[in-house]
Design brief:
- It is a single chain.
- The protein is α+β, with helices and mostly antiparallel strands and about 900 residues long.
- The chain contains 22 helices and 37 strands.
- The chain has a 20-stranded antiparallel β-sheet that branches. It has a five-stranded antiparallel β-sheet with strand order 4-3-7-1-28. A three-stranded antiparallel β-sheet has the order 2-6-5.
- Strand 18 and strand 19 form a beta hairpin.
- The longest helix has 23 residues, at about 525-545.
- It is globular.
């Protein structure tokens, strides 16, 4: 990983500093000229395939990211997308990151339905094909209208109707798209049954167009839920439209800002009205069960009657086709149709990961009739008739239970469809802290609690105020009731949205994310053994999610921290041993595992974790906005609120691979999170000297603290965000002043000035090394920064830290005047040996990296990689366990294995 030449760096810095003040997407003219003047290092096209087989299916479109080697493409490069057989596909391209020289680092590409049918694509410089249909956006003072060429949606900028209407061929398919919140002010902890509900409706505070086509348009709508004088539970909704598509996607985020003791969410949903024009027997209900299963019914059925209207009539209704004129039926049916019930209301409730129930009734005031049930519903349905109707679906329906689908009033002039993100039939959402503090009122008492349950408790800190959750929904405006095969495809697109992905080889070639990964390689027995172990660990956690039912609205996407071998259960109820909350970087392990393999199962696992850890484990409102919460029984329970959990390091891969705007929001919000050190001292409980946060002298660690700040600043800088100039300046100044410390990174901490963005240089050398310092993304951030920014002293300081962490105490003392004390996590730190070895071409360090990897405190060469069955009275559900596996060790083993193979794989002992 070579540094940028200093003369190029000075030129780039001047260009970047001026350009970053204007716009996210502003081109950099001088930098473009510089790039154009140099010969491209590797201008090969990027190869793109579907993440899962099957291609587009019924999805609206797909957006994906492509990484480019430094210096290959200027900022104004135009790209074309072609299939393997050379057919041109319309594509919309924008820049998501630039290298410091101004060349393209990451580009995002959107394709619509015209990409259907092809399996492999290439992205290369060229003129993009013109779409047969384009998406257009028009605005007035109060409305935004999006036309895909197939459907037309009108979005409000004010009021309570997010989507006023969705029309197709002039026919209104859906109207009054809105948000619904049910609040309960008390819980029935006993059997009184007297709790009351309040209904709040979403109220828009503003709406903006973020993209205008020609292939993809994005509208963002913000607001709160309101009833009377109270507004709460902020929402942010994005609507995605693709050219030519009959559908649109919704990404829905809510942030909890209530009082955990009295604001219990009883129901949280998205609701549309569906106008109905057809006769009751020509109206159809389709509700997906598990897999390809469906409830297939009409509002007024003609099948199963005592009198037969005729085989053709019955067959047409089951297919969703218009029935023949009733005058052609058996008149014993035609003349008695007024006595055949119309079924207007349907409900599918998924209250757990293992069961759903389905019921229906004719209309309010009358009894419900069971209509079936099963295990895991797809979260998809349809209501409409032969002249059109709405398909609708909620992703991760059973995984993020309790969820529910409602259809109401389908026998009338219009049906109401509600997709409940939190089912009103479930117990109310209870976010109260789980214990009373147990007398832990002082720091010494809290430290004693930490020493027994590993929970870092502090009164008032176990609050959900400011945590968030994002959900994804899909809607189709159908010209008629879809055929069964089409409905199956639509439901599949809800469960697993088709995703295009660039090849691992292209990601390696671009040297993104520090160049710390290489393609999966089983060419030698030693390499194959490590690959087998990596596969085993991923499979183990994937299986544990299912075996232990790590599902639920707030929980899905996280994994547990530590196992309890006596109970044959993860320590879900023991303080800091429960939910992992990104401890020691499992997010990074998963993303690096995907980057090198391209495996869909790893991508989806990492995607769910990114959605969870970036939203639920982090505060987005209040005093601690920008900080995350350490591992615990509840995701927000622990009093350690720190940068190491909220860090953008864990979000960057997903953002650049998908251009997901919500994750982009999360990272942008962290740019000013250095301000949080004024509000909360991360190590307040263990300080031995008095300390009061001072704006000009904030104590900030060079490890878990600075790595989180640096990740946010780097991301903002390379994205060219609104605060890019500030972010770049802070990144450079903190790198410079860390390197200038008497002992560099080994110094441990420094006093940071919020106004200048610099650390004060300590008068005396100190040793402040923790085994945690580098294990929350610092290794990865330093690799990226050394590759991007020409600061030789910073590189020297980091390489020293890498070389001496796993050195002997004698070597440490000889270099720094004292040793580093008692350390842990040597296997995880073997990747620092490997990095230094690669940078310094040091064979001895490379050998030490593999020796430490194989024979230290992690998963050693002697570990037995077998499954032990858990069954009978030993477990709630049968499955298997592995007593040697813990999530801390897994994350560090995975990262060390992947990075060591990439950096010093040629030194792997045979």
């Amino acid at each position: 990983m070579s540094a940028i030449p200093r003369r190029s760096l000075l030129k780039v810095a001047a260009v970047a500093g001026a350009a970053a003040q204007f716009s996210w997407a502003l081109g950099r003219g001088d930098a473009r000229a510089a790039v154009a003047a140099e010969a491209p290092a590797d201008a090969r096209p990027a190869r793109v395939t579907w993440l899962e087989p099957g291609g587009f299916g019924a999805a609206a479109g797909s957006t994906f990211g492509v990484a480019w080697p430094r210096g290959v493409h200027p900022d104004d490069q135009v790209f074309a997308l072609t299939t393997a057989d050379g057919a041109a596909v319309p594509v919309q391209t924008w820049t998501t990151a630039r290298w410091p020289d101004g060349s393209l680092k990451w580009t995002a590409h959107a394709v619509g339905p015209e990409a259907a049918g092809a399996e492999r694509f290439t992205v290369a410089p060229g003129t993009p094909a013109t779409a047969a249909k384009t998406v257009s956006v028009t605005e007035t003072g109060r409305r935004i209208t999006i036309d895909t060429g197939t459907v037309r949606a009108v979005v409000s900028k004010e009021g309570g109707k997010l989507v006023e209407s969705v029309t197709r061929d002039g026919v209104k398919i859906a109207t009054d798209g809105r948000l619904v919140l049910l609040r309960q002010g008390d819980l029935d902890d006993g059997d009184r049954g007297d709790a009351s509900w309040d209904r709040f409706d979403g109220e828009i505070s503003g709406a903006v167009v973020e993209q205008r086509g020609p292939v993809r348009a994005v509208v963002r709508i913000d607001g709160k839920h309101r009833k009377g004088n109270r507004s709460w539970l902020p929402f942010s909704v994005r609507l995605y439209f693709y050219a030519g598509s009959e559908s649109f996607r919704m990404v829905h985020t809510v942030t909890y800002d209530g009082d955990q003791r009295k604001d219990f969410i009883r129901g949280l949903g998205v609701r549309f009205t569906v106008p109905l024009r057809d006769a009751a027997y020509d109206r159809h209900i389709r509700i997906a069960g598990e897999g390809a299963g469906f409830l297939t019914e009409a509002v007024q059925g003609v099948t199963g009657l005592r009198r037969d209207p005729g085989a053709a009539v019955r067959a047409a209704q089951v297919k969703g086709e218009k029935l023949p004129d009733p005058a052609t039926w058996d008149q014993r049916v035609t003349t008695r149709m007024q006595y055949v019930p119309t079924w207007g209301d349907y409900t599918l409730a998924q209250l757990s990961a293992d069961g759903f129930t389905l019921r229906k009734r004719t209309k309010p005031g009358h009894g419900w009739i069971p209509a079936g049930g099963g295990r895991r519903a797809s979260g998809f349905g349809y209501v409409g008739g032969v002249t059109g109707g709405l398909s609708f679906g909620l992703r991760d329906f059973w995984q993020k239970h309790p969820a529910q689908l409602d259809i109401r009033g389908a026998a009338g002039d219009a049906a109401q469809v509600t997709l409940w993100l939190w089912s009103p039939e479930a117990q109310p959402m209870d976010l109260r802290f789980y214990h009373d503090g147990m007398g832990q009122d002082t720091f010494p008492e809290q430290l004693e609690g930490l020493n027994i349950t590993y929970e870092d408790h502090e009164p008032g800190f176990g609050t959900p105020y400011g945590i968030a959750r994002t959900s994804e929904l899909m809607f189709w405006a159908n010209a008629a009731t879809p055929a069964a095969a089409t409905l199956v495809d639509q439901a599949a697109a809800v469960r697993t949205p088709p995703q295009l992905a660039v090849s691992p080889e292209d990601l390696v070639r671009a040297r993104v994310f520090g160049g710390l990964f290489s393609p999966v390689d089983r060419s030698t027995p030693a390499r194959a053994t490590i690959e087998d172990h990596l596969d085993y660990l991923f499979t183990y956690y994937k299986d544990q999610v299912e075996q232990r039912r790590w599902y639920g609205f707030w929980d899905y996407g996280d994994i547990m921290h530590t196992y309890d071998e006596d109970r044959h259960q993860w320590r879900y109820d023991v303080g800091g041993y429960a939910w992992d909350n990104s401890e020691l970087s499992p997010d990074l392990w998963l993303w690096y595992a995907y980057l090198r393999s391209g495996r869909a199962d790893i991508f989806r696992f990492a995607e769910a974790m990114t959605r969870h850890t970036g939203e639920v484990d982090v505060y987005h409102l209040g005093t601690w906005a920008g900080l995350g919460t350490r591992h615990g029984v509840q995701h927000f329970a622990d009093s350690a609120k720190q940068q190491r959990i909220s860090t953008a390091v864990y979000r960057r891969p997903y953002y650049f691979l998908t251009a997901d705007e919500r994750v982009g929001d999360l990272m942008h919000a962290l740019v000013d999170s250095d301000e949080t050190f004024l509000a909360l001292d991360p190590i307040r409980k263990i300080r031995t000297e008095p300390y009061t946060p001072d704006r000009h002298a904030l104590s900030i660690g060079f490890g878990t603290d600075w790595s989180g700040l640096a990740a946010a600043w780097l991301t903002e800088w390379e994205r060219g965000g609104p605060k890019a100039a500030k972010a770049e300046a802070r990144l450079r100044s903190t790198m410079e002043t860390i390197a200038a410390q008497p002992n560099g990174f080994v110094q441990g901490t420094g006093l940071y000035d919020l106004d200048t963005g610099r650390f004060a240089i300590a008068d005396e050398p100190a040793v402040g090394v923790s085994h945690l310092s580098a294990m929350f993304g610092l290794v990865e951030m330093c690799a990226e920064l050394i590759d991007l920014v020409d600061q030789p002293r910073f590189k020297e300081a980091w390489l020293d830290y890498c070389r001496y962490f796993n050195a002997s105490k004698t070597e440490q003392a000889a270099r720094y005047g004292q040793n580093f004390g008692t350390l842990l996590l040597f296997q995880g730190h073997s990747r620092q040996d490997a990095y230094a070895a690669a940078q310094l071409n040091d064979t001895r360090l490379a050998q030490r990296a593999w020796a430490t990897f194989d024979r230290s405190d992690g998963y050693t060469a002697a570990m037995v990689w077998d499954k032990t069955p858990v069954q009978g009275s030993n477990a709630l559900e049968p499955g298997y366990e592995h007593l040697w596996i813990s999530t801390n060790t897994t994350a560090l083993y995975g990262l060390a294995a992947i990075q060591n193979l990439a950096l010093v794989g040629d030194h792997l002992p045979t």
